[in-house]
Amino acid sequence: MKQAASIEKGFTAVETTTKKRWRPMTRFERREAFFGYLFIAPVVLGFIIFEVGPILASLVLSFTDYDILSKNIDWVGLANFARMFKEDLFYKSFNNTIYYCVIYIPLSLGLSLFLAVLANRVRRASTFYRTAIYIPTIIPSVGAAVAWVVILSPQFGLLNGALKWFGIKGPGWFLNPDWAKPAIILMSMWVLGGIFVIFLAGLQGIPNEYYEAASIDGANSWTSFWKITLPLMTPTILFNLVMDSIWAFQVFQESFVTTGGGPLRSTYFLSLYIYDQAFTYRRMGYASAISWVMFIVIMIFTVIILRSSRRWTFYGGGEQ
Amino acid sequence: MNSTANNTVSQPGDFPQSRFHNLKHSLRWVSELPAHTLLILTSILMLIPLLYIVSVSFQTMEQILQGGGNIPIPPTLEAYRYVIEEMNFPLYFRNTLVIVSLNLVGAFIANTLGAYGFARFRFPGREQIFALLLASLMLPFVVRLIPTYIMFYKLGWINSFLPLVVPSFFGSAFYVFLLRQFFTQLPNELFDAARIDGCDEVSILVRIVLPLSKPALATMFIFVAQNSWNDFMGPLIYLQRPQLRTLALALYAFRSAPQGIPTWNNLMAIVVLMTIPILILFALFQRYFIQGITMSGIKG
């Protein structure tokens, strides 16, 4: 195979080198390129105005004391960062965010992959299960958050009512500093349908022949999960892991709507801190500095995942 | 509608057409029992909060405060009446609808054009620009939030729908990616034939590509509609005037209103009412939805 390829390469070498080398475009090619640029122009413009521009602006702002109202902007150097690392509330919100991520990310990924594998395997009622698991994500998230305040109410809520039935006295959930974060994680788990659906799509891309071949070889479903499903799902797991982590780091309305960051700041996450500084106190410069620290943490985390993924992801048949 | 039946991907979960339940089938059914048990349990856990929300919306405050997820007997429509007549629900509904529709139009125009440009034209820098766009998916939105706010503030767009609508007319990397994946899978002969017949680029896109891309478009529409219908952070920072509120923002405002205990029945009635349109949309496009995700190759 390799030999044949290299022979063919020899034949076409002249042709490819001329193709690779820069040469003026023909009229037809120029017309095609012109239309190409025209079609992508809005998207590229949007990318510059709403993505690249703001991110750079935010970096510049983080070295100023800009407050949007006053005309003059003062350059304050690293003062915003120095202040941040002295602020208790920064550490508190940072730790809360890490706590949330460390528990929520593995739990949501593990559980949704598990459910997707099950829902993909059964022959009957599969559509019902998929719908049941996905449907909570359809509820507007603010609505879901308000609903969970009722569900987890210690006085009249559904969950503690159900626990009482089993003779367990339920905790105060959103009203108790020790239970507020678990309550928010519980609430987030209810809407794992988004990740679940992507896993399901990934599972459906695995050819059935692999499983048939494995079962002929005498593999049970446990072995074929570890030897076929899991390796072939690693690209999907990587995708979900990266995107889910980025979202988890920015957790906002889950606590903003339910607890407002309380009680005793136990659900005060980084994004709430940024929001308060920017929109309650109008400290745009300081808030930008926090958002950049958050950005750097997310980037480091993402790079670690992507780097390590070369060792644990598997692309079958060389296709992406 | 019929044209889509041919390209439906056959899924491992599909039940075989045969009605004969031979021994192999019943054995399989038994071997799947643990999976079914777990899935039924999960489904119940997922659906109970939904039923509870609906149930609370039909209760009086006295019933709710008695506690314990009781079934509303007799059910009362009082909360719905109150929400629609006294809480300005129609106004907030209209506001949300305006924003969502404009977002759908914007996303449709910008993303189909962009995706088509990346999928069907060769030009210098195409792969690099596309890779940059994709990388932007990994940028946290919180970092962009403050400068974007300042920009709209300086433009005088605070307390208008513009900050929530205009960006969608510039597309979004995710949907460009989704549609591009789909467009590149269409056979080249189709385009050649159309060009030979004298179709210009725009009519190829409108007459040939779009009708063939229903699953991808449906997936995009569901995502866009859901995202802008549910958007909270945007309305929260850009819309301060009460009469501009969207449903999500209005719900939050009622929830955090300072006077007395929140009227949970009214709040849950809003939740139910604002879920219904998105539920209908999802039901209509549901069959395209997983297909769209599968074909786009989001999975990696």
Considering residues with a beta carbon less than 8 A from a beta carbon on another chain, report the largest interface and each chain's count.
A-B, 109 and 104 residues
Q: How many separate domains of chain A? A: 2
Mean pLDDT, all residues of chain B: 84
CATH classification class of the largest domain in chain A:
Mainly Alpha
How many strand segments of chain A? 0
Uncertain residue ranges of chain B: 1-20
Query: In which range does the helix fraction of chain A lie?
Result: over 70%
Give the helices and strands of chain A as they follow along the chain.
HHHHHHHHHHHHHH
> What is the averaged pLDDT score of chain A?
87
Proper CATH architecture of the domain at 88-296 in chain B:
Orthogonal Bundle
Name the structural class of chain A: mainly alpha
Oligomeric state of the chains in view: heterodimer
What fraction of the residues of chain B are assigned to beta strands by DSSP? under 5%
Highest CATH level, the class of the domain at 88-296 in chain B: Mainly Alpha
What letter string, H or E per element, gives the SSE order of chain B?
A: HHHHHHHHHHHHHHHH
Cα separation of the termini of chain B: 29 Å
User: For the report, how would you describe the main beta sheet of chain B?
Assistant: none
Give the CATH superfamily of the domain at 88-296 in chain B: MetI-like
Total DSSP helices of chain B: 16
The class by helix and strand makeup of chain B works out as: mainly alpha
Q: How would you sum up the global shape of chain A?
A: flat
